From TrEMBL:
Pfam families: RMD1-3. The lineage of its organism: Eukaryota, Metazoa, Ecdysozoa, Nematoda, Chromadorea. InterPro entries: RMD1-3_a_helical_rpt, TPR-like_helical_dom_sf. One of its GO terms (molecular function) is microtubule binding. This is Regulator of microtubule dynamics protein 1. It comes from the Eukaryota. GO terms for cellular component: mitochondrion; mitotic spindle pole; spindle microtubule. It comes from Enterobius vermicularis.
Amino acid sequence: MRLNFSTSIFQKFITDPSLQKNPEFLWRFGEACMMWANKYKKRNPKRRELIFEGREYAIKAYELNENSFDALRWTAILCGAATEYLGVKDRILQGKKFKSYLDKAIGIRSTEYTLLHLRGRFCYEVSNLSWLERKVCSTLRFELPSCTIDEALADFLAAEKFKETPWPENLLYIARCYAVKKQKKLAQDFLERAEAVDEPDECVNESIAEVRTMISNLL
């Protein structure tokens, strides 16, 4: 699947070689892929295809201009999103690249809320790795960073601080962290804040259901 804008922009992109080597154009196409992908549920193959396509655009943009913060930012975002669709081994290998991009981007702009959210998600996922996943990391000689739920929560709360408008995805991860910490009241509060956001996309609706189940299972 290739991104199919119903405008002359995409047609110009595929016929004009200069645009295919324009990093400013490419990272914006990567961003468009991510935005469109979020219209679909996580298991919809169209979402996966759009994320992988967007990752190609973003990586190429960053390769063409390593001084572009936006190209780096979208490379980190899309590499992180792509890990959802990989097996354990590939997810770990891709995770190493993702963390490298993420660290570089945060080093440039430490208060960028999307990057803080992504680092929080990385910490959250690492802290919740299964025994098998940790064994694979050991086999691949990938030294896992020391990550805790509290560190993940701190990043999500920081992202919430720097984001001027409500961001349901981040609110839901805060709720997840409090659920893991068995702080049911706080988890419920942040879930309700996420539910109150107008017109959530399909991906957010799916996550709301997941978090609601997590909280309902707490004693």
